[in-house]
Amino acid sequence: LFVSVSPFFAAALNPSYSFLESRSNALHLPSARPIDFEYLVQWIYARTLSHEELDNVKHPAYFRLIRLWQLADALQVEGAKNAVCDFMAKVADRTNSVPTPDDTRAVFGDEGVREGSGLRALMVDLFVWKKTDHLVEGHEDSWWVLLPSFSICVSPFSGG
Question: Which of 54, 67, 122, 146 has its CA 20 to 30 A from that of 86?
C-alpha cells in the first residue's frame, strides 16, 4: 500500500535497487514522530485526516498538521500533502483562525518548509485573508515580521 502512494517507499522497498530496506523489508525512520506517522498511515488507509487531535474545534492543531505535511513531504506522499493543505484551509475557515507564531516559524524558519511549497503558499493566503483586526488586536507578536519571504502591497483600486 505504501509503495502505491510514495516514490520514496517504492524505491526503498524495490528489490531491484538492492537497498538494505528491500532485503530486510524494514524501513527505519528515526526522525519521524510516531504520532505523525500514525496520522500518515490513517491517511494512506482511509484517505481522511479526521482525528480528534487534528480536528479540535476550539484550538486547531496547526502544528500537528504542519509536522504531518513535513513527514509526507520527506516520504514523497503528494496526496497526503494536498490533503493536509485542504484540511488546514477548512479548519481556518471553520474556526476563523490562523497558525500561531511558532507554527509560522516552523514553516518559514531556517529549518522550515522549502520555498515554493503548497504549505507555504497556504500559510501566506491564511495570513492575508484570515488575519483579522480581532486576531491582531490581542496578540503581542508582530506576525508580519515572522514571514520575511514575502511582502504584501495593497493599494486601493483607482477606478481608472
Answer: 146
> Angle at which helices 101-108 and 62-74 pack, to 10 degrees?
10
pLDDT in tens, the chain (160 residues): 787 888 887 887 777 777 777 677 777 777 888 899 889 999 999 988 877 666 666 678 899 999 999 999 988 999 999 999 999 998 888 887 888 888 888 998 887 888 889 999 998 888 877 766 555 565 555 655 555 444 443 334 444 4
Count Cβ atoms below 10 Å from residue 30 Cβ, excluding itself.
4
pTM: 0.76
Specify the residue for cell string 508582530. 142
3-state class (DSSP) for residue 140: coil
Query: Which amino acid is it at 22?
Result: S
DSSP state for residue 145 in the 8-state scheme: G
Q: Quote the cell numbers at residue 23.
A: 532485503
The residue assigned the cell 506522499 is 77
Cα separation of 14 and 2, whole Å? 12
Q: Length of the chain, please?
A: 160
